Amino acid sequence: MINMARSISEEELHNRILDFVGYVLTAARALYKEPQAYGPMRLVDTLTKAVQLLEDAGVRDESLSDTLAVIRDNRWQVTANPAAFGEALDEAISRLVQVTLQDAE
Questions:
Q1: In what helix (H) or strand (E) does residue 61 lie, and over which residues does it extend?
Q2: Which helix or strand (DSSP H or E) is residue 80 part of?
Q3: In the predicted model, what is the mean pLDDT of residues 13-26?
Q4: What is the Cα Rg of the chain in Å?
Q5: Is this model's pTM higher than 0.70 or not?
Q6: pLDDT band at 82 (very low <50, low <70, confident <90, very high)
Q7: Distances (CA, A) of 87 to 19, 32, 34, 37, 93
Q8: Rounded distance, CA 90 to CA 61, Å?
Q9: What is the pLDDT of residue 94?
Q10: A Pfam family in this protein (predicted)?
Q11: Contact yes or no for 47/69 (Cβ under 8 A)
């Protein structure tokens, strides 16, 4: 279920979008010199920031937040235990598929 209720002003939303774009650009700039394992972590961070930005803009989907919580809880395992991080990504993907199938019904 999607809830729509903006929690920030238009000016603040504009600033947050600029911050998000800046984050994505600087992450991309740094990524090619970082260890390969940082790529998935950066993508997850970007996804988390995008969802937060949408929530601040008034678009909130609780099932999506729950799906991302699985990854947030396991994100630092990307270097210490890559297999566990992969399993967390698989679980998040599976949850998202379930949400998508429920929405299609």
A1: strand 59-61
A2: helix 77-80
A3: 90
A4: 15
A5: yes
A6: confident
A7: 30, 25, 23, 15, 10
A8: 20
A9: 92
A10: DUF6092
A11: no
- Structure tokens, 53: 């930005």
In this structure, are residues 27 and 46 in contact, taking their beta carbons and an 8 Å threshold?
yes
| Domain that residue 72 falls in | 8-104
Q: How far is CA 57 from CA 13, 40, 92, in A?
A: 7, 26, 23
For tokens 């950066």, what's the residue?
Answer: 42
Residue type, position 102, single letter: Q
Residue 2: per-residue pLDDT: 62
Query: Does residue 71 lie in a domain region?
Result: yes
How many Cβ atoms are within 10 Å of 50's Cβ, its own excluded?
13
Domain membership of residue 2 (yes or no) is: no
d(CA 44, CA 76): 11
Q: Is residue 53 part of a domain?
A: yes
Q: Which amino acid is at 93?
A: I
Mean of pLDDT values over 72-92? 87
> What would the two tokens of residue 84 be?
């566990």
